[in-house]
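Milestone M4 deliverable, item 7.
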Amino acid sequence: MSLVDSYKIDEVNNNYAGEVWRYLAGENIEQYQPVCWNFDSNGNMVVSKIHSQTEDEHYIGVVLTDVTEGNYVEVLVKGDCFIKRISQFPSSNPTTILLNNLTHNTNNIDKYVSFRDNGDLTGNYTTQQRKIRFDAGVNNTWTLTLISAGFEHTTYSIYDRLLLWVGDDGEVWSKANITGWLSTSSTSEYGGNSKGGSSTPKNVVPNYSGSSITYNINSRWLRFNFYADTSSHYSGWNITLQTTDYSPSQNALDVPVNTALYIDNNDNNAIETPQTSWALTKKLGRVILPTASNNRVKIRINN
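Output delivered:
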């Protein structure tokens, strides 16, 4: 082994910066895998992938390139670099969010949501006055799919009502205006019992059953306000919300900054959960950039 540079920087791609040493590879190793030192059968010091018997003091850092057995490879032993971590992706199933006392007046950033009343799919909603907000994120908007809805509505009155307000900053709101929905003459955030005229924005979810209907909502923010009086209660709503950038097969989940990473005893890469069956239990490093695509994430090594 030999010191390459006490502070070497990847000036082209900014993939690493720190203290780099050159080691002989004792086996084939992939770029950005964490490695340990040991001695081969000829007594040469080599680097290899971490295995079940590797002790904490044998962990040295991360290889910066692919290497085959018997060739030299540069290893970052202290500083910042990427480390192999299998990317994780959002579930293909929506997150269920019920409007209840726990979610009232909250901001939500989930990208794929099954949004329902507090009676869920099997019960009726209860007397309440609650609201909830959804943020699609910068440069994103929403699609809203109405699956079913049941409220106390009559020919002229909407006693129980779910209103949709839209905005671009989460502070200034206007009524949505959706073809086929109902309107209320009131301008208050929870509306009023009286239906509005034909020129009033239609932002009240109607009673609905049948095939699902999908609407494009061209706003970053959605706010739902629900009012239910003390008389008759009905089945409520079942709505799916999805952001325009939602793509579970393409958008890897971030890893929070400062998350500690450990050796994964399944694939010799990094993982957030400490394993207990292998000898090496020390941290490989801590995350310094949250983006975790392409089966890697950037960490800081402090050996």
